[in-house]
Specification:
Blueprint: H1 18-27, E1 33-36, E2 39-41, E3 44-47, H2 50-63, E4 66-70, H3 87-101, E5 109-116, E6 122-130, E7 144-147, E8 150-153, H4 156-165, H5 189-192, H6 203-209, E9 213-215, E10 221-223, H7 225-231, E11 244-249, E12 259-265, H8 269-283, E13 286-290, E14 294-298, H9 302-315, E15 325-329, E16 333-339, H10 360-366, H11 390-402, E17 407-411, E18 415-421
Helix pairs in contact: 2-3, 8-9, 9-11
Length: about 425
């Protein structure tokens, strides 16, 4: 019942050995350690109470890396244990709280262990690791932080400062922010070499200069958000929402019963773009027209869809937890949903005329990334261009092919939807 534990980005060992954990328990609770006795009523956990535990877990994530040990009395520090057949129940209880009672949901990693009690008998306990989060988490009681062994309600100025630090106030570029618990070793050298020149300087310095690494307030060096998204083989280890959901539906309705093809697309951003284009090619129809010679026409312009996908990947809001890009194909249209409102002062009416970006570092790096050969000839050599031609190309290419202009729509000021209409053959076509 681990919450994203197999691929979680934990870099800091949190009382990894039995001896270290026992020593921490003997010393008692502090900023990094919380102890909990577990009680049951019937088939459910009755203590710790759901809302109280949610507040504790969120407080840790909002403050510092921490560990919660279930099966230890917080006052006596005695190891009282958890019945072996109830460990899964406790794990599930934590999972439900982290995903249902805390917003955005909280990542954790859990370990089933045995520790000796005062008589030397081994007792089962559950160790839950909570890393300092990239986000600010709200629990049922509000916003909390941890001070010593206690949780405290965040004063307004503390909360505002924390939002600013974690870039949710949009005062600091999110794509340049350090990713908690990441390290330079998480970046793939063949991937980051694309953005650097040979230098006598240490690699760490080179990557810091390119903002692929970022320094935390305490001096620790982490990967930046952009570094993870473009130079990490598996960026979803750190940013679980940084992927694309692609689905081909039969007909014109979004209905899971009519799915023809579905794929969750992961990997570095340029690899995601490549995979979406491959998904498009295998799922779109090709029609033959007689005019008077036979001409093959696809449902969509590769060039238009490429520009649309690149824009979605480059400009989406990566700080919105739980939202991903959605690429939906129907018989009559293609829909691309991109998380986040329009950047800066761009509006739906001005989107084809204005040039603005939310992620300047990501767009700059994509402008240095050569397009994969599998994409084919789409009129330029790099994934991003800085002339602002992307949206006009989407409009012109799609209108020419289908006879209908693509449509942008802002949904709840939180998601941008682009609809591209498919080419519809006439009855004279083969």
């Amino acid at each position: 019942m681990n919450n994203a534990t197999a691929a979680s980005p934990w870099r800091v060992a949190m009382f990894d050995s039995h001896e270290e954990l026992l020593q921490k328990i003997r010393l008692g609770e502090d900023t990094s350690l919380e102890l909990k006795t577990v009680r049951f009523r019937g088939g459910r956990v009755s203590d710790p109470r759901r809302d109280d535990l949610a507040d504790e877990l969120a407080a840790i994530a909002n403050t510092h890396d921490g560990v919660v040990v279930f099966g230890v009395d917080d006052k006596s520090r005695e190891i009282v244990g958890i019945p072996l057949d109830r460990l899964e129940d406790v794990e599930r209880y934590v999972f439900e709280i982290c995903n249902e009672s805390i917003m955005p949901p909280l990542l954790f990693r859990s370990f089933r262990m045995e520790l000796p009690d005062s008589s030397g008998s081994l007792q089962a306990i559950l160790k839950v690791e909570i890393p300092r989060s990239l986000f600010v988490h709200e629990s049922p009681g509000g916003y909390f932080y941890r001070q010593g062994s206690s949780k405290r309600k965040m004063p307004p100025d503390y909360l505002a400062r924390l939002f600013q630090q974690r870039s949710q106030a949009r005062l600091i570029r999110f794509d340049e922010q350090p990713v908690p618990n990441s390290a330079m070793s998480d970046l793939s050298e063949p991937l980051w070499r694309r953005f650097t020149t040979r230098s006598e300087e240490p690699s760490e310095i080179v990557l810091l200069k390119r903002n692929l690494l970022s320094r935390e307030e305490n001096g620790e060096i982490r990967c930046s958000v952009a570094g993870v998204l473009l130079c990490c083989e598996h960026p979803q280890r750190f940013l679980s929402n940084a992927y694309i959901e692609a689905v081909r539906y039969r007909g014109s309705r979004q209905d899971s019963n009519y799915q023809i093809d579905a794929q969750k697309i992961y990997g570095p951003l340029d690899a995601q773009i490549n995979q979406v284009m491959a998904f498009l090619k295998r799922n779109q129809a090709i029609f033959a027209e007689k005019r008077p010679q036979r001409i093959e026409r696809p449902q969509y312009s590769d060039r238009a869809v490429f520009e649309a996908v690149v824009n979605a990947v480059a400009h989406r809001d990566y700080s919105i937890f739980g939202s991903k890009i959605r690429f939906f194909m129907f018989d009559d249209r293609l829909e691309i949903y991109s998380p986040g409102a329009l950047p800066n002062t761009v509006t739906i009416d001005s989107i084809a005329l204005r040039q603005a970006t939310r992620n300047e570092l990501i767009t700059s790096l994509l402008a240095e990334t050569p397009i994969a050969e599998s994409i084919g000839n789409i009129g330029r050599g790099f994934y991003m261009e800085k002339r602002g031609d992307g949206v006009p190309i989407i409009f012109e290419e799609s209108l020419q092919l289908s006879g209908r202009k693509p449509e942008y729509q802002l949904i709840d000021d939180a998601e941008l939807l682009l609809t591209i209409w498919a080419f519809q053959p006439t009855q004279d076509n083969d």
